Amino acid sequence: MNPLTRLIALMQDPRTPKLPRFLVIAAMIYTLSPIDIIPEAIVTPLLGYLDDLMLLWLSTRWLFKSNTNVTVEPVEPTPPRPPASLPPPRQ
Length: 91
Hints:
By secondary structure, this protein is an all-alpha fold. It has one domain (3-66). The chain is 52% helix and 0% strand. It contains three helices and no strands.
């Protein structure tokens, strides 16, 4: 399963623990906020963005590891239904 699809499914699943979900949201906000522990303007931009991405990676990794008992199954598409105006098929 695609990691982004798995992340979205686990964030929406009510069986997922609340603390890892909260930390993923907090890491996303921290990554987008202008306040940093290691500012990009003082240090090289690579090291400045590295702390943001590291927190985001660690929080999503914890979310994935904390859900060993939660299985995310792909949703199978339902077959299309015939329009109501048509008679039922003969057998």
